[in-house]
C-alpha cells in the first residue's frame, strides 16, 4: 500500500511543479459599477518562456457580462519568464448585488489545453435609485406640462369626410339662396361706394366747375345705372335716356349739370344732381327687392 501511495505522489509532483510555474491574476479596475456601465477587467499571466499561452477572445462565454472591447499589451520576457496582460471592458447586466469574475488563461499543449484561473474578482452593483421611503413626499408644482397626443388619423379622416359631406349637402340645397344673398350684400356695398363718390364729385363740381368734372359725374351716374339695369346707358344721349325712362326730368337734370359750366347756376345744378341721385336710389332699391323676391321664391 505504501508503495502505491509513493508512486502516486511521484506522478503528481510534476503537475504541482508545472502549476506553480504559471501565475494568473485578474481584477476589476473599480469595485462597483452601475447596471450596464463600462468596466475594465485586467487579466495578467506569468509563465516560462517556452510555454504557449492563450487569452480568451470574443468567442468566450462571458455569461451576463457583455464584452465591449479587448486591449492587448505587448509581451515582456525577462530571464526566461514571460508576462502577458490584457484589459477586458465589460458591461454588467446582472441584478445580483455582486458578481464574481475569473477569466482563464489557456496553456496550449500538443493534444489538449489546460485552463489557469485567477482568484475571483468581485464587482458590486451600484444602485442609482435610493430606497423608497415608507411615506411618499410630493413636491408642489403647478406648472402645466403638456402631453404629446398621438394623432388618430382614422378618426380625423372620418370627421373631415363628414364635414365635407355636410358642406356639399348645404351647397346643393342652399346654393342659389347663398348666391342671391351674396349678390344682395354686394349691391349694398356698391351703392354705398357710389353714393359717397357722387357726393364728393358734386361738391367738387359746385366749387370748381369744369367740363372734365361734369363728364366724370355724368359718366359715374351712367356707369352705375348700366350696372343696375344691364342697359347701355353710356352709349345713350340725354334725350335717349329720358325717352327710355319715360321721365322728362332726367333730361332736364342732365342739362342742369351743364349749366354749372356755362351759366354758373349752382342752385339749379344742385337740384339736378339731387334728382339723379334719387333716381339711382330708386333703381338700386328695385334691384335689391327683385333679388330678395328671387331668393325667397327658391
Query: Which parts are unreliable, with pLDDT below 50 for 5 consecutive residues or more?
Result: 7-19
**Secondary structure category:** alpha+beta
Helix content: 40-55%
User: Count the helices. How many?
Assistant: 6
| CA-based gyration radius | 54 Å
The first-to-last residue Cα distance is 129 Å
Spell the H/E element sequence.
HEEEEEEEEEEEHHHHH
Mean pLDDT across residues: 83
Q: How many individual β-strands?
A: 11
Anisotropy-based shape: rod-shaped
Topology:
Blueprint: H1 2-20, E1 23-28, E2 32-33, E3 38-48, E4 53-54, E5 65-72, E6 76-78, E7 81-92, E8 98-101, E9 105-108, E10 113-116, E11 121-125, H2 153-207, H3 211-229, H4 238-245, H5 248-262, H6 266-297
Parallel strand pairs: 2-11
Antiparallel strand pairs: 1-3, 3-7, 4-9, 5-7, 6-7, 8-11, 9-10
Helix pairs in contact: 2-3, 2-6, 3-6, 4-5, 5-6
Structure overview:
The structure is a single chain. This protein is an alpha+beta fold. The protein has 6 helices and 11 strands. The strands form 3 sheets. Strands 1, 3, 5, 6 and 7 form a 5-stranded antiparallel sheet that branches. A 3-stranded mixed sheet has the order 2-11-8, with no helix packed on it. The chain has a 3-stranded antiparallel sheet with strand order 4-9-10, with no helix packed on it. β6 (about 75-80) and β7 form a beta hairpin. The longest helix has about 55 residues, at about 155-205.
Amino acid at each position: 500500500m505504501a508503495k502505491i501511495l509513493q508512486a502516486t505522489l511521484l506522478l503528481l509532483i510534476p503537475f504541482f511543479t508545472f502549476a506553480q510555474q504559471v501565475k494568473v491574476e485578474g481584477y476589476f479596475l473599480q469595485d462597483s459599477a452601475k447596471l450596464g456601465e463600462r468596466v475594465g477587467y485586467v487579466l495578467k499571466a506569468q509563465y516560462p518562456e517556452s510555454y504557449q499561452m492563450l487569452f480568451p477572445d470574443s468567442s468566450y462565454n462571458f455569461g451576463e457580462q457583455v464584452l465591449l472591447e479587448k486591449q492587448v499589451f505587448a509581451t515582456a520576457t525577462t530571464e526566461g519568464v514571460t508576462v502577458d496582460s490584457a484589459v477586458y471592458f465589460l458591461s454588467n447586466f446582472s441584478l445580483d448585488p455582486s458578481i464574481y469574475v475569473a477569466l482563464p488563461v489557456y496553456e496550449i499543449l500538443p493534444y489538449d489545453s489546460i485552463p489557469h484561473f485567477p482568484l475571483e474578482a468581485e464587482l458590486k452593483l451600484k444602485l442609482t435609485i435610493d430606497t423608497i421611503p415608507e411615506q411618499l413626499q410630493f413636491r408642489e408644482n403647478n406648472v402645466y406640462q403638456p402631453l404629446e397626443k398621438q394623432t388618430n388619423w382614422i378618426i380625423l379622416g372620418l370627421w373631415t369626410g363628414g364635414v365635407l359631406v355636410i358642406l356639399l349637402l348645404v351647397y346643393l340645397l342652399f346654393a342659389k339662396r347663398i348666391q342671391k344673398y351674396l349678390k344682395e350684400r354686394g349691391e349694398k356695398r356698391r351703392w354705398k361706394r357710389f353714393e359717397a363718390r357722387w357726393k364728393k364729385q358734386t361738391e367738387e363740381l359746385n366749387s370748381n366747375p369744369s367740363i372734365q368734372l361734369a363728364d366724370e359725374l355724368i359718366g359715374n351716374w351712367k356707369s352705375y345705372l348700366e350696372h343696375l339695369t344691364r342697359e347701355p346707358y353710356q352709349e345713350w344721349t340725354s334725350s335717349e335716356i329720358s325717352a327710355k325712362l319715360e321721365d322728362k326730368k332726367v333730361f332736364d337734370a342732365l342739362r342742369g349739370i351743364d349749366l354749372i359750366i356755362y351759366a354758373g347756376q349752382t342752385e339749379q345744378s344742385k337740384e339736378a344732381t339731387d334728382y339723379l341721385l334719387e333716381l339711382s336710389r330708386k333703381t338700386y332699391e328695385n334691384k335689391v327687392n327683385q333679388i330678395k323676391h328671387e331668393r325667397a321664391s327658391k
